[in-house]
User: Fold this.
Amino acid sequence: MTTDQASQPDPFQALMECAQDTTMGILLRSFWQPISPASTVMPGQAKVLKIMGQDFTLYRGETGTAHLVDARCAHRRTLLHTGWVQGDEIRCIYHGWKYDGTGQCTQAPAETSEFARKVRIGGYPLKEYGGLIFAYLGKGAPPDFDLPRKDVLETGSAVMIARTEVWPCNWFQLVENSLDAVHVSFVHHAGTVGPFGEAVSNAIPQLEYQETDAGIRQTATRGEKNVRISDWTFPNYNHIVIPTPGGGTWMDVCVWRVPIDMDKTLRIGVYAVNSDDSEERRSFIEYMNTFGGYDPSQNHEALFDNRAYPEDKLIQLTSAQDYVAALGQGALPDRSRERLGNSDAGIVMLRRLFWRELDATRNGQATKKWKRIDQLGELPTQSAMPVSAGGHAK
Ligand code: FES
Ligand SMILES: [Fe+2]
Assistant:
C-alpha cells in the first residue's frame, strides 16, 4: 500500500470505516446505495434514518415522489420527520420552516422571504428501483444508475419483494463473507441442513477468483455438476440464486450491505422469482409474507446460547447461520490477529482491491470505472447447472 501512514495508520481500520470524512466513507458515497424499501414510506409520510453515520429525513411527497434531506432543521435542529409533508415539501414541527427535496428552505413563516432563500440543508438525489429507494450521498453529480441494475429486476414478470435485516456488526465482514466460498460447506450445515446446504454439499471447493468489470467473479467447484459461480459487485452488492421452498424456479437474491454506522449494518435486498406460473408466484409471496420478516439479530441469545436455529430452512436458517459466524467475529473484528490460508484467496483479493481503490481516492486519482455485468448473459442457470449461480441468501 502507498497509504499515507499519518492520516491512515491502520489499513484494516480503513476497510471498516464509513463516516463522511474517511477515505472509505468518500469511496462508498461515490456509489448509489439502497437506503430503504420503497414501501416503508407512503405518500405524505416521513421517517428518520441513519446511513454511514449520517442522519437523514426520508419523505414521500403527496405526489408520490420520494425525497431525502438532512435529518434536522437548520433553525433549532429539531428532527424534520416529526413535521408535516406538504406537497413535495416538508415543514418543521417547531417553527414551521419548510424545505423542498433539494434541501432549500422555501418558507420561514416568522421571517422574511429573503431570509428563507439563504437557508439550505443537505438534499440528496434518489432513485426507486426493484422496490428499493437508492440514494447518492456523494459530492458532485451522481454516476449513472448502472451498477444496481440486474436483468431479473427488469423483466417485468418477476415477483419482487424487498426485505431488510439490521446486524450489530461492521459492514465489511459481511462483504468478506460473500467472497468466502468455503464457509458454505460448514456454516450452512450448522444447526440443521436446509435446501441450500444440501444443494451445495459439504465438500471443500476448488476456488477461482477473477476481477471483472463489476467486481469479483467467484467460482467454487465441488464436483463436475456442482459448480457455483457468483458475480459480486463493488463495493457491497452480491447477487445470488437460491432454491425456492416449493422446488420450482429458483429465486434471485440481490443484497447490499450498507453501513448504518461502524458497528451496525443494513442488509437490504430484493428477492425475486421470475416465473409465469401463477402457483409459483403465489407460493413465493405466501412464503415471504410468512417467513420474510425474520431478523437473526432479534434472536441473538437463542442462537448463540442455545443453538436455537429457526424452523424455516431457507431464508431464516441461511441468514441465522451466517449471522452466528459473522457476529462471532465480533462487531469490529481484529484482522491483524487472523491466520489466513490459501483458501482465503477471495478475501485477500477483495481487500487488495479495496486498498487499491482507497489509495486512489486518498491521493485524488481516478478510481476504477466499474460497470455492471449483463447477468442473463453471464450467470449460469439452475437448469444448465444443478447447483448454480452462486448461491445463498446473504
Ligand atoms: S427548529 Fe425547525 S423551524 Fe425552528
Ligand atoms: Fe453464507
User: Anything to note?
Assistant: The longest helix spans residues 345-362. Residues 177, 183-184, 187-188, 322, 392, 394 surround fe (ii) ion (ligand 2) (CB under 6 Å). The two ends are 30 Å apart (CA to CA).
